[in-house]
């Protein structure tokens, strides 16, 4: 099963011992909104500052959480905009060729 944004933050919240109400106060959001996020039922992805606050309070990686929420960090959005012509080809090629995608991800994770 693929990890979702909601299941990840729910499990991390429970691991940290927070109730939804306690965590929502720290995040400065309504607890019903946090419940929707945890159940993957929010009408839209949370804003980047809410995601960063979740990451901080739950001890999760910010950028990974932003991507899992369906957002792109602003610095990456700027890069995508600068290279917008090449992005559709790159994504299509990665989807069509899993070996190519694996090599790209491996190269991205190799320390320089």
Overview of this structure, please?
With 112 residues, this protein is an all-alpha fold. The chain has 2 domains: 67 residues, Orthogonal Bundle (434 Repressor (Amino-terminal Domain)); 35 residues, no CATH class. The protein contains 8 helices and no strands. Helix 2 packs across helix 3. The chain is elongated and about 45 Å long.
Write a brief caption for the model.
The chain is an all-alpha fold. It is built from eight helices and no strands. Helix 2 (20-27) packs across helix 3 (31-38) and helix 7 packs across helix 8 (98-109).
The run of helices and strands is: HHHHHHHH
For this structure, the CATH topology of the largest domain is 434 Repressor (Amino-terminal Domain)
Number of domains: 2
Helical segment count = 8
Describe the main β-sheet briefly.
Answer: none
**CATH architecture descriptor name of the largest domain:** Orthogonal Bundle
Rg over CA atoms: 17 Å
Which CATH class of the largest domain? Answer: Mainly Alpha
Shape: elongated
Number of beta strands: 0
- Given helix and strand content, the structural type is mainly alpha
Keywords, separated by commas or semicolons:
112 residues, 434 Repressor (Amino-terminal Domain), 2 domains, elongated
Question: How would the blueprint of this fold be written?
Answer:
Blueprint: H1 5-16, H2 20-27, H3 31-38, H4 48-58, H5 62-68, H6 74-82, H7 87-96, H8 98-109
Helix pairs in contact: 2-3, 4-5, 7-8
């Amino acid at each position: 099963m693929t990890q979702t944004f909601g299941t990840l933050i729910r499990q991390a919240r429970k691991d940290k011992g927070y109730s939804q109400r306690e965590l929502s106060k720290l995040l400065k959001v309504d607890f019903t909104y946090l419940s929707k996020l945890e159940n993957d039922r929010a009408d839209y992805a949370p804003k980047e500052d809410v995601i960063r606050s979740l990451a901080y309070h739950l001890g999760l990686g910010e950028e990974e959480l932003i991507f899992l929420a369906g957002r792109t960090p602003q610095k990456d959005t700027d890069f995508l905009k600068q290279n917008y012509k090449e992005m559709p080809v790159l994504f299509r090629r990665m989807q069509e060729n899993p070996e190519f995608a694996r090599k790209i991800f491996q190269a991205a994770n190799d320390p320089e």
